[in-house]
Design a protein that fits this description.
The structure is a homodimer of 305-residue chains.
Chain A lengths: L2 E4 L3 E7 L2 E8 L1 H9 L5 E7 L5 H9 L2 E2 L3 E3 L6 E6 L6 E7 L19 E4 L4 H10 L5 E5 L2 H6 L1 H8 L4 E5 H8 L4 H10 L4 E5 L5 E5 L2 E6 L13 H14 L6 H18 L13 H15 L7
Parallel strand pairs in A: 1-4, 1-9, 2-7, 4-5, 4-6, 9-10, 10-11, 11-12
Antiparallel strand pairs in A: 2-3, 7-8, 12-13, 13-14
Helix pairs in contact in A: 1-8, 3-5, 6-7, 8-9, 9-10
Chain lengths: 305, 305
């Protein structure tokens, strides 16, 4: 089993009420890879400029992330600048410099075309379609998207949605995509567009899993005493979900639910430090221990009948 | 065991994107009583005007709510007018007519002074203190409050907080009360003010229980396909929590968690119709069935070690 991710690798300039960081490593594909690498072998497709540090590629290699698909080209790496207020659920984008990412057309190395699992991170849905054309026979494909593509590339987005197994999407964007303020109805509308599973991401309120043939599942976020930087939490969550699924064969209700909790576990580590610094040196025992804390968080006994 | 509630009984004029209703029965004490009546015997203390309909008192009596403490006086009943947008989490208050509620000073009938459990609904904290002075030896006291009292009657609020076992409070108001944007830190600050338990209400995102000596517990809200009117959901939630506790002896981690889920169960019924109409004719079986759906909503298996 191997897990292909296609998305952005970036420098982030982030300001939160608790501090700021400049040129921190970021981007959807990087957060996703760091997270998923704790569960499976990751194949990374992205583009960076010649300013991208060796330290980062060394780290990814140390986590067994395959970098044959990481193209290095002349110019500067994609750069995002954003700010969070005390409501850490929503970032204000201050600046976006696409740089080398502006001409990105993902090309999959031969080995990557056989990936069993695929995550199409939040990029132009036309690029997501380009990727799908190159993968031979994937078992499970998931995608993320955002308001910008829902507004500007709706037709391409609808086409790619029809071809994937799972969509992971923010609550507000799910409502926008479905044109429906009720989240259950919105999820059902998105399910009708193709995917078997819709994951609604709700930031510090956790995530909901809707599927065609099962009741909804709610994965909480862990209430943390210190949340430093929510950047990348959604991609880190997706990395936990897809990483676990790619390493556990058939997708069923049981391992989907475990995968959602592991997504929350990884995201809870991510937000406790700037960038993905807290995903660099986790031990398996720490992940298992936090998984148990999530179980305790929602545990209750049945009523006596 | 009996459960005393002191709060408002009102007429509500409510507009939501799904319809509107005029002079619907409402008020914190009414929602609370209707909900708690499914679990225990309720003693209601409130005031209404001479315009208050017999139909309502007949209904409460039919639910075994004791009305000796419901004073009927000359004038009009408290009237609230509010509107919800598509974000049903927050009401805009359009008008508040205190009417007979303006001169309310709760007087407890002799029998009520022996109540084992007490809920001080969201009223002036000085009135909450007046009530506490009249109760003889309660086993468990909970209160609700709001931004208005946090701003205008902070000193009295701090005094009453020091005397209660549990506070139930909206997320935004918990942050305001504690002066801290992080919800875990805010809950800990409120715990230091006196109560053993702090319940943070998060609307459609559920509720968190913090306590001095246990890890946090998260009670989800059920994702509903139709939410008609969120008015009273918080008081209905509190009615489930306190109703269950007052009927189950010693307060411990297990029955607190079950009580939180039952609060969510009752709130989920409440929001499906205008006013508390959906709390009029529930069967015990419906409550038990929805409790099981809540259990399924958050169920997942442990990881193989």
């Amino acid at each position: 089993m191997s897990l292909l991710v296609v998305g952005s690798v970036a420098f982030d300039n982030v300001e939160t009420p608790f501090g700021k960081v400049e040129r921190a490593l970021g981007g959807s594909a990087l957060y996703f890879s760091a997270s998923a690498s704790y569960f499976t072998q990751v194949n990374l497709v992205a583009v960076v400029g010649d300013d991208f540090p060796e330290e980062a590629t060394d780290f990814l290699r140390s986590r067994n992330v395959d970098l044959e698909g990481l193209r290095r080209t002349e110019g500067e790496t994609f750069c995002w600048k954003g700010r969070y207020g005390f409501d850490l659920n929503e970032a204000v984008t201050l600046d976006t410099q696409l740089n080398v990412f502006g001409d990105f057309h993902p090309e999959l190395p031969a080995e990557y075309r056989k990936s069993s699992h695929v995550f199409l991170a939040n990029i132009d849905p036309e690029l997501q379609l380009e990727v799908l054309r190159q993968v031979e026979n994937p078992e499970f494909v998931a995608l993320d998207t955002m308001n910008f593509w829902i507004e500007s590339k709706r037709e391409a987005l609808v086409r790619v949605l029809a071809e994937v197994d799972m969509v992971l999407i923010n609550e507000t964007e799910a409502r926008q995509l479905a044109g429906n303020p009720n989240i259950v109805q919105a999820a059902n509308t998105v399910l009708e567009m193709g995917p078997k599973y819709v994951v609604i991401k709700r930031g510090e309120y956790g995530a909901l899993l809707f599927s065609r043939d099962d009741e909804p599942f709610f994965a909480p976020a862990y209430p943390l005493e210190s949340v430093f930087d929510p950047t990348g939490a959604g991609d880190t969550f997706a990395g936990g979900v897809l990483g676990y699924l790619s390493n556990h064969g058939e997708v069923n209700a049981d391992n989907l639910r475990q995968a959602m909790i592991l997504g929350g576990v990884m995201a809870s580590f991510c937000v406790q430090k700037f960038s993905f610094n807290n995903l660099r040196t986790l031990e398996d025992g720490e992940i298992a221990e936090r998984f148990k804390r999530f179980a305790k968080l929602v545990h209750f006994n049945g009523l006596e009948s």
